[in-house]
User: Fold this.
Amino acid sequence: MVVDKCIDMMHFSFFGDFRVNIDVQLLINLQSVDLKIAMLKGEIDAVPGEIEELRQEFLKAQKDLQDLLDEMDQDEQKRKSLERTVEDEKEALAKSKLKIPEVKTNKEYTALLSEIENMEKTIYDTEDEILNLMELMEEKTTLKKENEGVVKRENEHFNKLKDQKEKELAEFNGGLEVETTKREQLADGIKRPLLEQYERLKQARNGIAVMNVVESVCQGCHMTIPPQVVAEIMTGEEVINCEHCNRILFITP
Ligand SMILES: [Zn+2]
Assistant:
């Protein structure tokens, strides 16, 4: 708000019966350029972070897809291993069945039958496990297609916004160059001690060294300015500082 106000007022040096001191007017102009420069620098500094934030979104989508692909790989390994188990068990089962006619005692027979039953159960359970796993793998195949779509979209989105951000950055840099040149020219026309005072105040007062007075109140520190000082500012003859915040003052109707 303060910034807008200062920029709006930069081209006026007469306000009815009010006269803004000519040196102060130069400082108002300089301050409006300085505020633009500060804003542009802020924008320029923010761009790499903004691009990185967008890149992280894309990388997250890519990582989700990679995690899924890794999972699918593991599922495939597991399926192969389970199928090997089934094959081995079936082979062992066939061998055990061949042993049946050779059994001599009842005890051996019972033991062999129990072994066969166990193997059959293992085969049944493992095949069941394979079916469940394959169902899960099918679901993941669908999810994979969806995730691939998300990655593609995020990538396009990122590239588009990155281009946009880079274009903005070029504009900010161009603007900064223009304003910096303007600033140098303005600063050249300002009396050295006043310019130094301005620089010190700018540093100490968060970028606002020159401030207007509204209804006898300094808009920088919101303290009341005595009537005789207000009258002095209105003549525009001298550079007057706020006795509270030390900012250079001007008055507009
Ligand atoms: Zn003040």
Remarks:
- The pocket of zinc ion is lined by residues 218, 220-221, 223, 242, 244-245, 247 (CB under 6 Å).
- Residues 42-178 form a domain with the Helix Hairpins fold (CATH 1.10.287.1490).
- The mean pLDDT is 93.
